[in-house]
Amino acid sequence: MSAWLGYALVTTLLWGVWGALAGLPGEHGVPETLNYVVWALTMIPPALLVRRRGGRPLLRDARSVKLGLAIGLLGAGGQLVLFYAVRVGPPYLIFPIISLSPALTIALSLAFLKERTGHLGVLGIALALLSLPLFDYRSDGAAGYGLWFALALAILAAWGVQAYVIKLANQTMDAASIFFYMMLSGLLLVPVALAMTDFSQPINYGLDGPGLAAAIQVLNSIGALTLVFAFRHGKAIIVSPLVNAGAPLLTAVLSMMLLGVVPGPMKLAGIALALAAALLLALQPESPAEAPHA
Q1: Over the chain, what is the mean pLDDT?
Q2: DSSP single-letter state for residue 133
């Protein structure tokens, strides 16, 4: 097995399982804000490892710092919202919606970078738009979109803009520096998360609380690390479809199995369209100048 394929498969597996389990700490008495703190701490080891193996000095010029922090804050902000979203909504619907974030990235690139997209990108955006109304469609024809749907769209927006900023950063920054600033930004939001925590409410501080959260968030952090190496050893046009479509699909399947539910036909159609859109968007070829430096 090629090195890049091994890393990509590990990322897909880790992120797929992480997504299905992300809501468990909240069910065990860990507020989503403290769940975020645990995630931010688990990002430290992979960030340091990437820095050590990167062999390049950390970029500290003004442009790199601004872009790096912007990337990190968008990613970390999305994570903070995600921990609450999976507590109030079903992961098997939330993650397919989030997987559509490349549609926003492509739209921003078309508008501001004057890039062009091919037929796959156009079709992917069209399927993405068609899928969204199906996620909470009711038999009476009404759309009962709840808070979870709005939160999923907010995460989609944050991570779609984040990927657009990564496109800008990749022109001058290496992946190790980007990853370091992502870790740093996550830590910068820890005081905000702590300030948002209602410590007057009962909080589980045991192994089945923060301990469980750490075990789950490590899957996310290690997956981010293996993704860096997947892009380093493989081609983005192959790695991206596998991770962007494969991980949400695994999350959706595992979540439905764990919950013992089978969504209605309209929701299933929404999931299928969203995953097809994610696959097409990830398959859209990048020009050499757009390829991520990993």
Answers
A1: 86
A2: G
